[in-house]
Fold each of these.
Amino acid sequence: MAATVSPMTQIPPEGAPEHVSLADYLPYQLATSSTAVSRLIARAYEDRFGLSIPQWRLMSVLAEGPLTQQAAVVRTAMDKVRVSRAAQDLVERRLAVRLSNRVDRRSHSLELTAAGRRLFAEIVPLARAYEAALLAGLAPSEVTTLKRLLGQLEIAAGTLYGADTAPPGSERPE
């Protein structure tokens, strides 16, 4: 799917520099920030719990209740191959189980096992501690603003890409 630019997009004024300074380019800043945080978290989850980031993300959404693999794709913002691999790994470790859909036998849902719920409960304090450490230099109002702005950027990117996206936890049209 090709990206589109809205007629509302502001075009740089005449005489604006023709180049982009990578260090000042917001998409680059977002990508490098995300990579740095993911690398930090990945090392901690791998070292302490033997989990990859995709496995952690999947466990996190499954902790809220069973999901189909397609719903997990949407909720985790991961592609279906990554969700499938993470699901297989969790099932092999007996942290999750696949449940058959009684109405449609071709479909199944994923659910954390008791062992998966126990491991998740062990991870949550560490996840919250990392989040608190990352946000320690910001005032509560700045954290609220940051989360709101990130949600708006996600929606804008989805709109430009042509997808129907919404920030995690927000209502999605059925």
Amino acid sequence: MLFVIGLFWILQVIMTYFQVKHYQSRIRELRKKGAIGIGTVKGKLRAGVIIILAVKNEHVADAEIMKGYSVFARFKRIPGLVGKRVNELLENNFNLSKAEKKALEIAVKTLTENHSLEGELQNG
């Protein structure tokens, strides 16, 4: 029994490693498209959510979401946000859940509060 628990623990560690690598690769790819904003909401009894926004010329160049309970969750594109102005993102629901909306708010906040990104958001 202890062997099986140990085996599952090792499998969990390996899968977490691959999920982190996937997360890092998505950030690298999205960084090529513009300034990055990341919003994270951790779930206790519900699925956690991560939203990554890539913004260029005050518009969303790309947006991805990862949600789920397990290490098998992967990022998926959010086409409804692409092309929207950053200041529009908080004015519309975009059919997002409460946790997804909160992650979006955090991503926008990280974009607008990060002084190193002000030029990107204002000047393009």
Amino acid sequence: MIPAILRTTLKNRLSAGPARRSDGSGHLWRGAAAGLVLSIGMAGPVGAGDWSGFFLGASMARVTGAASDGGTTSAPGLHLGYDHDFGRVILGGEVEVDRSGGAGDSQAEDQTHRIKLRAGYDMGETLGYVTIGSARRETATDSDNGAVYGLGVSYSLNRALRLSGEYLHQDANDGAALQAPARDILSIRASFQF
């Protein structure tokens, strides 16, 4: 049930139309609506998540490189890291290893080790972050060192389980005369926080 005074006010407002609002009362309604929209838009998340702690998980990545470097391959991996929650800002680090290449061809397989630092923004159950670090890629015949950087987003399903997506760009630059091609890595990750 709508109270009588509110029902009368709404009826007058709806029947008034733009022509009868020369007294400026239409500005009051528009101002109230704008204030409501602004307050909803600026409100923080209902419950900020706690991202502090160690995490351990697995990933499946799609690695894209030059055709001479094997083209596009899949790379399962493992990661271990720690994040510290400073309120809205999250700082942390991670070590990661993945293996890509042909299943039966040892010449085509390679293993990559990464050490990464990351900084993120706490949006409640979601964490957006940027990462930078170092990578070492080893094959049966060679190894390359280089920089890795990228961005990601992590979603906390509950206190213990996170699902993430991450994009990394990895350069191979160890000072050798012949440079290994860069690689782009897109991964889906699941982590257990403890």
Amino acid sequence: MFKRFVMLLVISITAMVGLSACSATDNRTISGQAAQEALNIVVDKSVAEFDKAGGSETLAVGQTTYVVIYDPTAPEGKQVVSANLSDKSAPTFDKPEAVSMHALRDLVKSSKVKEAEVSLAKNVFTIQGTDFLVEIFVTNDIVYKSNIWSTASGSQDPQVIVTTYGISAETQKLFDSATEPAAAQ
């Protein structure tokens, strides 16, 4: 009986250690190369999940709020829809480049970030560059929010991006109502 108890205890502890070691972010405080590596893991995992399940991104810039919806099951050229939620304009089809998650992947692997200070504390990555600051909020090694400040924007307000994985019924309804953008004049 005692052997079984000890064996069960050893298995439980091993499982807990093994599961906690799987996370790149949970309860860690790291900086430098270790933080950069953890950031790459998290962003790659987030992009893979977003590309597989689709999702939406709500972008707030100053007083204006936009939504970008990505549906990987839609036909090519019709997978991305964007809308200005502030003025309630009709949603239109957009280019894949409008998806911020893909831009985030490109940013974290860029030379700008490699030269920046990268740290992780309390499930928030901070990237401090010479002319920008990015905060990336993570849960279960998946990005759910980012704040981006840049001196190039000329604004004191950050660009806030909240990411949702998967497409809700409400989001699908907005996606389904998309039209082609008006031709440029």
